[in-house]
Amino acid sequence: MTLQNLIPVHVGLVGHIDHGKTELAKCLSEKVFTAGLDKHPQSRKRGITIDLGFSMFSSDKYLVTLVDAPGHADLIRSVVAGASIIDAAILTVAADEGVQIQTIEHATVLKAMAIDKLLVAITKTDLVENNQVKQVSREVEGIAKRLKLEPVDYIPVSAETGTGIQKLREILVDSLTSPNREDEGPLRIPIDHAFPVTGHGTVLTGTILRGSLSTGDAVQLVPGGSRATVRTIQTFGQERESATAGDRVGVNAPAFDHKRIERGNYLCTPDSMKTAESLLIGVELNPGYEGRITARMVVNATIGMSSVTAEIVPFREMDGRRITVEEPQERVFEAALLLKEKVPAEIGNRVLLMRTDMPVTSMRIVGCGIIGDLMNVVTLHHVRTRNGEISRIRDEDVLIEGLARSKQKAQSLKGQTVRSENGAKGRILDAFGTRGVVIVTFEDEVELKEEVVLEDYIEEEYRFGR
What we know:
Elements: E1 7-15, H1 21-28, E2 31-33, H2 41-46, E3 53-58, E4 62-68, H3 76-83, E5 88-94, H4 101-112, E6 118-123, H5 130-147, E7 153-156, H6 165-175, E8 188-197, E9 201-207, E10 212-214, E11 218-222, E12 227-229, E13 232-235, E14 238-240, E15 242-244, E16 248-252, E17 266-268, E18 275-285, E19 297-303, E20 306-318, E21 321-324, E22 332-344, E23 350-354, E24 365-375, E25 378-393, E26 398-401, H7 407-412, E27 417-420, E28 425-432, E29 437-442, E30 451-462
Parallel strand pairs: 1-4, 1-5, 5-6, 6-7
Antiparallel strand pairs: 2-3, 3-4, 8-9, 8-17, 9-16, 10-15, 11-12, 11-17, 13-14, 13-16, 18-22, 18-24, 19-20, 19-23, 20-21, 20-22, 23-24, 25-26, 25-30, 26-29, 27-28, 27-30, 28-29
């Protein structure tokens, strides 16, 4: 079988811990590769998946890569990383336990990452009666409806007896469509594993998101900047001369040091990708998130396969300025994301925001966003409010006390706009006297002793932690 003739599709296996993802992957798979399914020593010791596992099966048309994501609450970032490369997903829910908090978290991740092709596998059906299977299906339907997900189907299965496995495979394959791929443009491969192979040197594995790759090509690691030449390329053990967007590949590039490569690094066309320390994003809050959002709140941001600690600073656009907002009341807003370290990113990338400091029994996914701009330093404005009082009304103007404490400061306010407590808009003309009184003209009538507010916009540069 020549894998290059098949259409590559990547399907995530997600769900609560011990709900049968890995056993299901073993039943569906023809081959297991790249860290395998629970091959990590800690996976075997603890009896749980702690890393992304990759396996495959093929149909007449598709090469299906199964991405087995860990279900443990502490490993949610690996789930998000896996979601960044998949085209469809199977949500596993154990019939003997039903919907759990990580079931909801993982479904929320799929929604946030725009994965709309979803199957629900009700697993471990050999342990319960049929009416329990139906009850669990109804529970999942309720969650899907709340998240506005539309599962293709609900399939009862048992990895122990084999019941439903073939049906699940058939329904999955029938539901697949050829994904839209970015075959043109600079190479982008988010790296999920890197390791040494005796006699060959460093091998990197990942899924090509954009562009193409051939043996002999020059490639670059971002961040870091080191360069190498591609010696060989494989897909699930088969050698190939080239690969393109959508292909899962192992790339042998001996010049790279595997110890310096981390998940979330990118293999790129040289000089084609930037890193950023700050991002401007449009945020949409997760409807299930019940916490607050406040300026400088610490979150975990996952961008592609990179996961980084960040501070979020909501803002609103006004008169060409980005004005910081202490606590946004809207579900959709703009924000600056200040990263603890530089990460590779591009405009249009999705960002998932989490509160990993919250209890695992609560909804920790804050929301998601789309990157609108990249920068290292963000310039924002915050509003400083000063209150004054109308002390005298004259024929053409009024005098206001309290906005400044000296003549020099009063003169510095010339041209600024003020507003009375009744909504009249005014403009500061000049200082009056030596004690900080200012002369103001108003567009509408005002009253003696009426309170007046001046808003100053203070420009500041923002970085993580300062």
